[in-house]
């Protein structure tokens, strides 16, 4: 198993007491597989993956286990030293965030930001790193990549910025891509292009995908298995075909029923 | 067919741009460039389009928040807005709006009671103090809040509840038209469904006309009777909500409908997407002829020279495309 998460718990100490954001999450991820984590605001879906990468706020307390394959018996991510996590983040597990404007550094040209990942994890230097960065931008179909590589993040549209994020995430050919609501802020036609790009990149590199979203349509098109989370717990898990055809938990059923449909249910696509 | 409640004809909102050099003529950003709309009492018109198409500017122009460059807005056959104080005042009262970000559109230092009562001080001066208080309490109950929320502040409420407060504030003056600009896009699906139910119920109860603006096609389909599709400041297609997305006629509507992911794994595997070329052109420099031609997979030579009008296309349907019939018949092949 590429990633094995057992009994993951995330608690936050707040002035109003302890908030239990994630209450015992288990899941496994095989190489190349795609897993959707679905839930509404506050269900703990984002906090669970941030916990794996050691990216939670300072008042968070994490327990449980998350073993990433490799070395003797794998690498334990929970409670790992900073040095260990830094070798994993970006290189073996890369993250794509919802809002590229806050995830990118506004003061740096994007070529510098992508090259930084390559310098740190792949030991590339100056010109070679920059050339590779431009190749990555071409791979995500940014037109005129050599010139636009010198742009700052604010000079791109939302969709183009999300392409830059994907280029950066793919720079070191990670084994796992974690995408947290990667298309939520985008228009439908741009969303469709970004999702195509992600699928294409995975087909090329064989990366596994953990897709966090509230959008059941996106999960239906991108994932093989899914977890439905509510209030920090998994209420249902399984293959997407089974869950969409016959949801077992009341919450999953309510969630599916609440989704407005463009096509009449059961009608299929054109 | 009765006359529409709100009639909009050839509405334009152009924002002047400063010329780069003094000898150049000043250009204009054509945010809304000749839009016709009809809204009927007790009905919902959905307006869809992507970022930058001008849908929010259109909403703001209809509520008097953006300057109208040309065109007419009539309510019950009488001109709205403009210079005359009475007409401007009637616009402010009869056309109300709710906004996308429910918390940001409420003043954090005012209580819910004060927020909902504020428009009455200006727009319903004829009502007594006691009458206004009664109306505020009644409206809060109408939107699913209760009288004991009246002294609370916006931050104490969830996003869905804040949107209910925004709806109460808009409807308390008894408007004829409610403009909803992305009212549910910041909310979770279960909350979204309840707000949509509330809007539909209030529309029917008070007989108001709803203009529902959103980028989520499925949400728009659910609440609307008719839908208009906007691209680069113009309407490109209009038709009944139930059929427009099943059989879109305009290439842009086709592309939009084909891009929406559906909560149906089998349907997703068979979904064929229409890909658009390039990026959205600038509304400061729109393409000649058909504004969509630069991205249209079916564009022909005459699309660059002739501006397509929003013409009849079957019952209750209008489309602004020279070749809609030929595309539907497969006579023109996508590039």
TrEMBL record, chain A:
Q: Could you tell me one molecular function GO term of this UniProt entry? A: ATP binding
User: Where is this chain primarily localised?
Assistant: membrane
**What membrane topology term does the record carry?**
Peripheral membrane protein
Subcellular compartments: Cell inner membrane
Question: What residues does the ABC transporter domain cover?
Answer: 5-256
Task: Report which reactions are catalysed by this protein.
Answer: a dipeptide(out) + ATP + H2O = a dipeptide(in) + ADP + phosphate + H(+)
Keyword hit for Acyltransferase? no
According to its UniProt record, this protein's enzyme class is: translocase
Q: Which Gene3D superfamilies match?
A: P-loop containing nucleotide triphosphate hydrolases
Carries keyword ATP-binding?
yes
Show the SUPFAM superfamilies listed in the entry. P-loop containing nucleoside triphosphate hydrolases
Q: Which family does it belong to?
A: Belongs to the ABC transporter superfamily.
This protein is called ABC-type dipeptide transporter
Where does this protein come from, organism-wise?
A: Salinisphaera orenii MK-B5
TrEMBL record, chain B:
* Biological process annotations from GO: peptide transport; transmembrane transport
Please, which domain of life does this record's source organism belong to?
Answer: Bacteria
GO MF, one example:
ATP binding
> What keywords does the record list, in alphabetical order?
ATP-binding, Nucleotide-binding, Transport
Q: Which SUPFAM superfamilies match?
A: P-loop containing nucleoside triphosphate hydrolases (SSF52540)
Task: Please indicate if the UniProt record lists Cell cycle as a keyword.
Answer: no
The reply on keyword GTP-binding is no
One Pfam entry name: oligo_HPY
Q: What start-end ranges are recorded for coiled-coil regions in this protein?
A: none
The record's similarity note reads:
Belongs to the ABC transporter superfamily.
Return the PANTHER family for the record.
Answer: D,D-DIPEPTIDE TRANSPORT ATP-BINDING PROTEIN DDPF-RELATED (PTHR43776:SF7), TRANSPORT ATP-BINDING PROTEIN (PTHR43776)
- Under what name is this protein listed? Peptide ABC transporter ATP-binding protein
Recorded source organism is Salinisphaera orenii MK-B5
Its lineage reads: Bacteria, Pseudomonadati, Pseudomonadota, Gammaproteobacteria, Salinisphaerales
């Amino acid at each position: 198993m590429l990633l094995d998460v057992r009994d993951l718990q995330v608690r936050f100490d707040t002035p109003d007491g302890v908030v239990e954001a994630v209450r015992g999450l288990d899941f496994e991820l095989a190489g190349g597989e795609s897993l959707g984590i679905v839930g509404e605001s506050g269900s703990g879906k984002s906090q669970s993956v941030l916990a794996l990468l050691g990216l939670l706020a300072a008042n968070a307390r994490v327990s449980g286990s998350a073993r990433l394959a490799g070395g003797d018996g794998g690498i334990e991510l929970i409670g790992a030293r900073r040095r260990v996590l830094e070798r994993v983040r970006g290189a073996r597990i890369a993250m794509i965030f919802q809002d590229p404007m806050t995830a990118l550094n506004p003061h740096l040209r994007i070529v510098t930001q992508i090259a930084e990942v390559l310098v740190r994890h792949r030991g590339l230097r100056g010109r070679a790193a920059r050339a590779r960065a431009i190749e990555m931008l071409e791979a995500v179909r940014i037109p005129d990549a050599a010139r636009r590589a010198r742009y700052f993040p604010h000079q791109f549209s939302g969709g183009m910025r999300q392409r830059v994020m994907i280029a950066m995430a793919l720079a070191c050919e990670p084994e796992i891509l974690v995408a947290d609501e990667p298309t939520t802020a985008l228009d439908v036609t741009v969303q469709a292009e970004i999702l195509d790009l992600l699928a294409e990149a995975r087909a090329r590199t064989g990366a596994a995908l953990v897709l966090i979203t509230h959008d059941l349509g996106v999960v239906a098109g991108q994932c093989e298995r899914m977890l439905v989370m509510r209030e920090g717990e998994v209420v249902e898990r399984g293959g997407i075909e089974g869950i969409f055809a016959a949801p077992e938990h009341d919450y999953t059923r309510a969630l599916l029923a609440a989704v407005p449909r463009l096509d009449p249910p059961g009608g299929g696509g054109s | 067919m009765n006359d529409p409640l709100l009639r909009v004809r050839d509405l334009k909102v152009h924002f002047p741009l400063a010329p780069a050099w003094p000898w150049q003529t000043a250009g204009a950003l054509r945010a809304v460039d000749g839009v016709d709309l009809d809204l009927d009492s007790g009905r919902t018109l959905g307006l869809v389009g992507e970022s930058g198409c001008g849908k929010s500017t259109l909403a703001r122009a209809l509520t008097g928040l953006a300057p109208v460059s040309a065109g007419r807005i009539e309510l019950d056959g009488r001109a709205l807005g403009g210079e005359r104080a009475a007409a401007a005042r009637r616009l402010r009262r009869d056309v109300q709006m709710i906004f996308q970000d429910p918390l940001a559109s409420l003043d954090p230092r005012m209580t819910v009671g004060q927020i909902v009562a504020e428009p009455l001080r200006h727009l319903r001066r004829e009502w007594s103090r006691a009458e206004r208080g009664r109306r505020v309490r009644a409206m809060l109950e109408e939107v699913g809040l209760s009288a004991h929320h009246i002294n609370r502040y916006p931050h104490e409420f969830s996003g869905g509840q804040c949107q209910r407060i925004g709806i109460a504030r808009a409807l308390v003056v008894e408007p004829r038209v409610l403009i909803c600009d992305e009212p549910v896009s910041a909310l979770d699906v279960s909350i979204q469904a309840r707000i949509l139910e509330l809007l539909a119920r209030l529309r029917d109860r008070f007989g108001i006309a709803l203009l529902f603006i959103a980028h989520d096609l499925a949400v728009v389909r659910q609440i609307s009777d008719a839908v208009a599709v906007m691209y680069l400041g113009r309407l490109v297609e209009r038709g009944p909500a139930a059929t427009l997305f099943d059989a879109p006629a305009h290439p842009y509507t086709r592309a939009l409908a084909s891009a929406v992911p559906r909560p149906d794994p089998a349907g997703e595997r068979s979904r064929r997407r229409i890909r658009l070329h390039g990026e959205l052109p600038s509304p400061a420099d729109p393409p000649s002829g058909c504004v969509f031609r630069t991205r249209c997979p079916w564009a022909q030579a005459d699309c660059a020279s002739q501006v397509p009008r929003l013409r009849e296309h079957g019952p209750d349907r209008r489309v602004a495309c020279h070749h809609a019939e030929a595309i539907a018949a497969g006579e023109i092949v996508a590039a």
